[in-house]
Amino acid sequence: MTQHELLQEGKLLPLMEEFYSLQGEGHHTGKAAWFIRIGGCDVGCRWCDVKESWNADMHPLTAADLIVEHAMENPAKAVVITGGEPLQYNLDYLCGKLKQAGIKTYLETSGSEPLSGTWDWICLSPKVNAPPLPELLSGADELKVIIHNSDDFEWAEKNALLVRPECKLLLQPEWSQYQKMIHQIVDYILHHPKWTISLQAHKFMHIP
Q1: pLDDT tens-digit readout, 58-95
Q2: Mean pLDDT, residues 39-45 taken together
Q3: What are the CB-based long-range contacts (under 8 Å, 24+) for 120-124?
C-alpha cells in the first residue's frame, strides 16, 4: 500500500501527541484516560488553545497499530481521541483495534466531518463557523458548547433542540473569557437547569 492509501484507510494518522492524564472537562471530568491528539483542523476557532494542531503536515504520520500499542500500556483502558478535528480521518481501523484490546473509546469533535469509528461516548462541541452534521447531533452523548460571549447561549439552545433527549448538555466558558463569562453562565444555568457547567479543570490543576 502507498502512504496515501494507508492514510485513507486510517492505518496512518498524523499524531500530534499522546499522553496519560485526567479528563479535564466535560461530563467525564476527573477520570483517567489516555489522550490521542490527531493533527489537522479546518474549523479554525480564533480562541483555540491548540492552534499548533491545525496543520497536519507538522505532525508525523504514525502507524495506528503503534498508537494502539501505546494506549494499551496505561492502566485506565480508556482512550480520548481529540484534535484538531479527528474526524477528518477514517477512524474505523484505530477504533477497531482499540476495541479488540478492550479499551473504551471517547471522541471529542466539532461534528463538522462525517462520523467514522466505533464509540462508547461522543462529546460534540459545535462551532458556529462549521456547524455539526445531523449524524453527529443525533449520535452525541454530550453536547459541550463553548461560551465566548453572550451570543453563544443562543447557539447552545439551537443545538440542544437537535440532540437526543438523553444527551448531556454542558456550557463551558472559553478560557480567555473565564472571568468575564463565568457569572453569566452560572446565572444562565440557574434559569435553565437542563444545562450543567463544564470547567477546564486541567488548567486549574496545571496538568496536561
Answers
A1: 999 999 999 999 999 999 999 999 999 999 999 999 99
A2: 84
A3: 121/27, 121/28, 123/26, 123/27, 124/159, 124/163
Tell me what pLDDT residue 47 has: 67
Please, which residues bridge with residue 143 across strands?
124, 169
Question: Does residue 30 register a pLDDT over 70?
Answer: yes
**Beta pairing, strands 142-147 & 168-173:** parallel
| Structural domain boundaries enclosing 55 | 3-205
Instruction: Report phi then psi at 94, rounded to 5.
Output: -60, -50
Specify whether the CB–CB gap between 90 and 65 falls below 8 A.
Answer: no
When divided into structural domains, the chain yields a total of 1
Q: Is the pTM of this model over 0.90?
A: yes
Average pLDDT, the chain: 95
Q: Which of left, alpha, beta for 152 (phi over 0: left; psi -120 to 50: alpha)?
A: alpha
Give the CATH number for residue 49.
3.20.20.70
Q: Where are the alpha helices (DSSP H) in 162-207?
A: 178-191, 201-205
Other Cβ atoms less than 10 A from the Cβ of 1: the count is 10
Phi, psi for residue 24 in degrees, rounded to 5 = -95, -10
